[in-house]
Design goal:
Chain B: Its main location: nucleus. The complex is a heterodimer of chains A (362) and B (863). Chain A is mainly alpha-helical and 362 residues long. Chain A is built from 19 helices and five strands. In chain A, the strands form two sheets. A three-stranded parallel β-sheet of chain A has the order 1-2-3. A two-stranded antiparallel sheet of chain A has the order 4-5. In chain B, strands 2, 3, 6, 7, 8, 9, 10, 11, 12, 13 and 14 form an eleven-stranded mixed β-sheet that branches. In chain B, strands 16-17-18-15-19 form a five-stranded parallel β-sheet, with helices on both faces.
Chain lengths: 362, 863
């Protein structure tokens, strides 16, 4: 997210001000206060004091660090900046001890401390306990993707163009020209607009550009609109439909049977036996191209679908329940199935017909 | 404990007494007496070799105890030329805490332990010696006298070798006793004789030590058999000084080992009692024995024994105990049969055999390295060792830290450079050093430390310095740049508005202050205990008021208006676990460290049976509700202690909720808490205004209206003073920012404050929705549509998706694929605009709005 931007800015500030100690913590890495404390001690280079002493206990560690931070006062000790990435995860720690103490220090005449929390959650304040919240300065900066499409286009251009310091000047010029023309191309604009509509995120733009750039070859070293188009397709691909394309005819048939069941019973869960019966009906009455598979074979196909997570059991699989009667739900939408079927290579016509009209075979 | 005069107090001048005895070989001068003269006072302390001395450490209260073995001048050491060699004694507090229980009893107050550990350094700076002390050795059966008239008397009963306590052997006791009384007198004449011969062995410090340890020293001394080696004899003849056989032999052996590596081998063999040279001993001994008999009287043997001790290098401590019996037997045999050699040899052989295999192995392990040293020039050895000591001195200087006086003169200066560069770390963290770790004493806080300070791991450790208190408090390194002074009124205002800037008096809490003050004061005056419960929402000044009360009471106590008391503060939030409260209290009360259970016992004992008249303890327990446990034993104990007559404990508890005692406490707990309650009401707007005005006294930074506005705003919301101050501080920043260009910061106006308030209280959801992408917005719209359709506040993803597709169709937008919609959904979920289940549920995952539907509609309409 945009957390990165904030961090970058922060670094710039700190380069100016070297007289500052930084402590970086990440909620995903420091999963509890204990590890966080250890990390703080490490980053403050206090561990020599901890050293090889028997200093394992969490409580000792805490009091040690608190004492360390308490010692200082405003004028003498070096300011410390704590940067808590994934701040919301720190709020889930027991009692929010770490946050309370950090805020408390920042609010009292101890070592000057700045605590910066980074999170994507907008409701972070609600996670804080009341006394922690009271100590929090309530200063929030929201970073939003507030730019419009023209800016987006500009960013796109800037991201793609080569810098002036690029060694091969001529190539850089050519490349940049190409990028310029790209940004004016209508189809490219359309693609970008589409992408922008879906996601304003710059990271997703990077993803798109990366995919496009991967298509650049030495023989033709320029990005084309076609490349972008392809990349966009890759980005917006429906992963499940892709999986459906790779299924066997039998499995497709099963999915169609499930779809019919869904239609008939209005989204009620089904079990294997029902699906099998439906399939049997289809094969016996209508199908000429589909071989009537034996039950174990169909069962195998059914299990394969379950492994692909195209169907999901309603409850946890219990050992004693018979697999045939376990209730399942289809995780595919009707439209998805139909779309996939249209693209499915070598689909027997009767299967396709069966899919379109559940009652046609009657 | 007496406060020993240290160098910090007065400048002391160290000078040698007596003629220096030059060692020609190594240019090293030895002395037998040193005088310490305090500047500004005429008294001089004479310290003689063999006496027990106090040596300056990092702890003024507990200087190190040691026996002076040798004084000498070392020219190669740049900073400290006066050196001394000592045999250390340990105080009980110096024994590592985890080993202390090995003693199995409580140590007597003045008890020390013979430090029997070979790997510690005995070479120290002579100028760290403070003065004499008396050490009395006690036999294992004797009881340490409890009435201590003379605080400068120590008692030795056991020896400590880093692994276990062992009783002193009777010989050692006798020896120590005699030393104490006899050494200054009877040693002198002998010293004169032996000085010159002694010195070479001193300069080759390590070498001699090891040799001595390899043989049992007493043996080699007692047996004049060594002259058998021709080379040694030659040297004997060369040196025309009169000497006692004892020292001569030791010297010879040391030389011999220095000269020929082959000899060292012999010595290893020697310990196995199979060496050929030894076999030749009887002959030599017989030839020489008549000559030897005269000097070798018992007293002298003891003396030589004393010298042994003086020379006692760390290495030889290992065998010191075993050697002593040998001495005894020689004594006896001498007196009776006048054949000292045989007796000596025999007895010396025995201990060697007794030696544990590990010891032998250890020595053998040391062998190669020793041989290297031995083969290299003595000069180099000396330089090396002096370098090490130099490093150690530097370390010591660093540890003495800023408390160091200028007394050390030129010695101090070079070291000061180092300590300067490392000064921030010195102040920052006197690291609690494990006393005898081999790795260098201080790993550096910041890389500023020179590596030169790190002594090689080989360095034996026992120097006076590395004994810092175990629980040194670390500090963040200090800043290089001074904090800026506030330059204009706005900055000044900001400083004053910071929560940490506690004002002189707390306005609007006078009544509460008075109540608490009266309560605590009455308890103090009555010498009784009691509990008080203080509640109030966050930011109403509970803790600040109590602190204020305590401060006032402490002032009053100083003025003798109220009896003195001890104040302890515990914060439930700063504990990891409720039971840790015991540990904290105990630590703050007595400085002891214990586990939670043990601490609870100790505290209970302390508060229940308080024999001696001690001060009242005032205990502040902040964030009481966090001390809640299933059994509520922590709270129970806290409130139970004050009810005991002897306890004299006043407990002030602070928590947020008013009905905490009723809500979470069991009856028996809340009944003990009593009914002394106090609740801090949230500040009203006029009170908040008053607080702000009092903080901004004489500072024209805010408009009056602005202050009133913020006070009213906050009072309407929470009455949290912290919040109020935060808003004001933010407003000053906004003001400063907006006035940046004109240059003259104006007053903080209502507009600025409103901006600040908006910033803090406005919901971010709407802006977030406004700034989200088209797809996200239409997804939200689909959710709304689905809610409206179903009439529920919850929908599955599949339902929302179909709605979404329908919506897109209606508006003619290209509809997204399932994967895209899923990504959008999870993104909104991560922002917490939506509440979603874990995405494992896929299509069936339930979606709920985290914002009100109206807000979403409002935000979407704006567009």
């Amino acid at each position: 997210m945009l957390i990165n931007h904030a961090l970058k800015e922060l670094m710039e500030v700190e380069e100016v001000n070297e007289n500052v100690l930084q402590v970086h913590l990440n909620g995903l890495l420091q999963i509890n206060d204990k590890t966080a404390l250890k990390e703080i001690t490490r980053q403050l280079n206090l561990e020599n004091v901890v050293g090889d002493k028997v200093f394992g206990s969490f409580a000792e560690n805490l009091s040690f660090l608190l004492e360390a931070l308490k010692k200082g006062d405003r004028t003498s000790s070096c300011p410390v900046i704590f940067i808590l990435d994934e701040f919301d995860l720190f709020a889930h720690h027991k009692n929010q001890t770490l946050l309370y103490n950090l805020f408390d220090i920042s609010q009292s005449a101890q070592t000057p401390v700045a605590v910066i929390g980074l999170t994507c959650r907008l409701d972070i304040l609600e996670l804080l306990e009341k006394r922690v919240k009271s100590r929090f300065s309530h200063r929030q900066i929201h970073l939003m993707n507030s730019f419009g499409f023209p800016q987006y286009l500009k960013i796109f251009k800037e991201q793609l163009s080569l810098p002036a310091v690029f060694p091969d000047k001529i190539f850089a010029e050519k490349w940049n020209e190409n990028v310029q023309s790209l940004s004016e191309d209508r189809s490219v604009r359309e693609i970008l607009q589409k992408h922008f509509n879906v996601n304003k995120n710059l990271r997703s733009l990077h993803m798109l550009l990366m995919l496009a750039l991967n298509r650049v070859t030495p023989s033709y070293p320029f990005v084309t609109a076609a490349h972008l188009m392809e990349a966009n397709q890759l980005c917006s691909m429906d992963s499940k439909a892709n999986i459906v394309h790779g299924l066997s005819v039998l499995e497709i048939c099963l999915i169609i049977a499930m779809k019919h069941l869904n239609d008939i019973y209005e989204e009620e869960p089904f079990n294997f036996q029902m699906v099998y019966n439906e399939f049997q009906k289809f094969v016996q009455r209508k199908a000429h191209s589909v071989y009537n598979f034996e039950k174990p074979v169909v069962m195998k196909a059914f299990e394969h679908l379950q492994q692909l997570e195209l169907i999901r059991p309603m409850e946890r699989t219990s050992v004693n329940a018979q697999r045939e009667y376990q209730l399942m739900k289809l995780l595919l939408d009707n439209t998805q199935i139909m779309n996939a079927l249209q693209k499915y290579p070598n689909c027997p016509t009767d299967v396709r017909q069966w899919a379109t009209s559940s009652l046609s075979w009657l | 404990m007496a406060h020993y005069p240290t160098r910090l107090k007065t400048r002391q001048i160290y000078s040698w007494v007596g003629r220096p005895l030059l060692d020609r070989k190594l240019h090293c001068q030895t002395y037998k007496e040193m005088s310490v003269k305090k500047e500004g006072c005429s008294t001089e302390i004479h310290i003689q070799v063999g006496q027990f001395v106090l040596i300056e450490g990092d702890d003024d209260e507990n200087p190190y105890v040691a026996k002076l073995l040798e004084l000498f001048e070392d020219d190669s050491a740049t900073y400290s030329k006066k050196r001394a060699r000592v045999q250390w004694f340990m105080r009980f507090c110096e024994v590592p805490v985890n080993k202390q229980n090995l003693l199995g009893r409580k140590p007597a107050a003045q008890e020390i332990f013979w430090y029997d550990y070979p790997a510690c350094n005995s070479n120290i700076n002579a100028e760290t010696i403070i003065g004499h002390v008396q050490v009395v050795a006690l036999a294992p059966g004797e009881v340490i006298p409890m009435d201590l008239k003379n605080e400068k008397t120590f008692f030795v009963k056991l020896s400590w070798n880093e692994k276990k306590f062992e009783p002193l052997s009777p010989e050692l006791i006798a020896q120590l006793d005699k030393l104490q009384e006899g050494s200054p007198r009877c040693q002198k004449p002998l010293e004169a004789k032996t000085k010159s011969t002694e010195s070479p062995s001193w300069t080759t410090e390590h070498a001699v030590k090891r040799i001595e340890s390899r043989h049992s020293t007493s043996k080699s001394r007692q047996t004049p058999s060594h002259p058998v080696t021709p080379r040694a004899r030659k040297r004997l003849e060369l040196s025309s000084f009169p000497r006692t056989p004892n020292t001569r032999i030791s010297q010879q052996t040391s030389r011999a080992s220095l000269d020929s590596p082959g000899r060292t081998k012999r010595k290893v063999a020697f310990s196995e009692i199979t060496s050929p040279s030894k076999r030749s001993q009887p002959d030599g001994a017989q030839t020489l024995s008549p000559a030897l008999q005269a000097p070798e009287k018992t007293g002298e043997i003891q003396h030589s024994c004393a010298k042994d001790d003086k020379k006692a290098s760390p290495d030889c401590h290992m065998i010191l105990r075993t050697r002593v019996p040998a001495l005894k037997t020689t004594e006896i045999s001498e007196e009776r049969t006048l054949t000292p050699t045989r007796g000596g040899r025999k007895s010396s052989v025995v201990p060697l055999v007794v030696l544990k295999p590990e010891n032998i192995r250890k020595r053998e392990a040391k062998e190669p390295e020793f041989r290297d040293e031995a083969t290299s020039t003595p000069h180099r050895i000396r330089r090396k060792s002096s370098l090490l000591t130099l490093n150690r001195i530097r370390q010591q200087l660093r540890f003495l830290g800023n408390s160091k006086s200028d007394e050390e003169g030129e010695e101090f200066l070079p070291a000061a450079e180092i300590s300067d560069s490392g000064s921030e770390e010195d102040e920052a963290s006197p690291p609690p050093l494990p006393r005898r770790t081999h790795s260098s004493v201080s790993r550096n806080l910041r890389s500023s430390m020179k590596s030169s300070l790190q002594t090689p791991s080989k360095t034996p450790k026992k120097t006076p310095e590395p004994r810092t208190p175990r629980h040194a408090t670390p500090r963040i390194r200090s800043r290089n740049l001074a904090a800026q002074e506030p330059t204009n009124t706005l900055e000044e205002a900001r400083l004053r508005l910071h929560v940490s800037a506690v004002p002189q008096s707390l306005p609007c809490r006078e009544q509460e202050f008075q109540d608490i003050y009266n309560f605590v004061e009455s308890k103090l005056l009555d010498h009784t205990g009691g509990c008080m419960y203080i509640s109030g929402v966050p930011g109403t000044g509970k803790t600040a008021t109590v602190h204020e009360v305590i401060r006032c009471l402490q002032q009053a106590a100083q003025a003798n208006d109220v009896p003195p008391f001890q104040y302890i503060e515990v914060n439930g939030m700063k504990l990891t676990e409720p039971h840790q409260v015991y540990v904290q209290i105990l630590q703050k009360l007595t400085g002891q460290r214990a586990t939670a259970n043990h601490a609870a016992e100790l505290l209970a004992k302390r508060f229940r049976t308080r024999g001696s008249s001690q001060d009242t303890t005032v205990l502040l327990v902040d964030e009481l509700d966090l001390l809640w446990t299933q059994k509520q034993d922590v709270m129970y104990n806290l409130f139970d202690w004050p009810t005991h007559k002897e306890a004299r404990l006043v407990v002030l508890t602070i928590a947020n909720t008013m009905d905490l005692p009723e809500r979470i406490m069991m009856n028996r707990v809340s009944s003990r808490l009593g009914l002394t309650r106090m609740s801090f009401q949230p500040y009203t707007h006029s009170q908040l205004q008053q607080i702000l005005v009092s903080r901004l006294e004489h500072l024209k930074a805010f408009e009056d209206d602005a202050i009133q506005l913020v006070a009213r705003k906050v009072a309407a919301l929470s009455g949290d003073a912290r919040r109020c101050l935060d808003i004001c501080r933010r407003a000053t920043e906004i003001c400063e920012y907006s006035h940046q260009k004109p240059g003259s910061p104006g007053l903080v106006t209502t507009a600025h404050l409103l901006e600040a308030v908006d910033e803090m209280f406005s919901s971010s959801y709407i802006t977030a929705i406004k700034n989200s992408s088209v797809l996200e917005q239409s997804f939200l719209r689909a959710i709304l549509a689905e809610f409206r359709r179903s009439g529920l506040e919850e929908a599955t993803f599949q339902q929302v998706y179909s709605q979404h597709v329908a919506l897109c169709r209606m508006e003619g937008l290209p509809y997204p694929t399932m994967s895209e919609a899923m990504a959008v959904c999870s993104h909104l979920g991560s922002c917490r605009l939506l509440l979603v289940e874990p995405s494992r549920n896929d299509l069936l995952l339930r979606v709920r709005l985290n914002v009100s539907q109206d807000d979403v509609l409002y935000a979407l309409k704006e567009e």
